[in-house]
Design brief:
Elements: H1 6-9, H2 14-32, H3 42-49, H4 54-71, H5 77-83, H6 100-110, H7 115-119
Helix pairs in contact: 2-3
């Protein structure tokens, strides 16, 4: 199986999204010259700078990568490495971990997008 960076195969955890969001807001506040003591809402700062939330950007990137992988031929190594799941591996107890393809399905459902639209480059 070919090597793929961890960011491609692993879904993003809530904790990581929260940490990225906090770091992003710190930078945006610094950019605007505000501190937390100024008590300016995040939405106001985002509107002033014109930046979308980082969670939204991560979702867009994940769906764009999904479209890229789906457009590849079935025998392509990237398609085999990302979309195929190994079924004979024993999983641990508890709730199963969220896989990358499951997180893509959730994104498609949340954004009300079909797989065909995700495949379209112009959309």
């Amino acid at each position: 199986m070919p090597y793929f960076p961890a960011t491609i195969k692993k879904p993003t955890k809530r904790r990581h999204i929260q940490q990225l969001s906090v770091a992003e807001m710190r930078m945006l506040r610094w950019f605007c010259g505000h501190t937390r003591r100024d008590r300016v809402r995040n939405e106001v700062i985002r509107d002033r700078v014109g930046v979308a939330p980082i969670e939204e950007k991560l979702t867009q990137h994940r769906l764009r990568w999904f479209g890229h992988v789906q457009r590849r031929p079935p025998e392509a190594p990237v398609r085999n490495g990302v979309l195929e799941r190994v079924d004979n591996v024993k999983r641990g107890r508890g709730r199963p971990k969220l896989t990358w393809d499951e997180s893509v399905k959730i994104d498609l459902k949340d954004w009300n997008i079909s797989k065909e639209i995700a495949l379209d480059r112009s959309a």
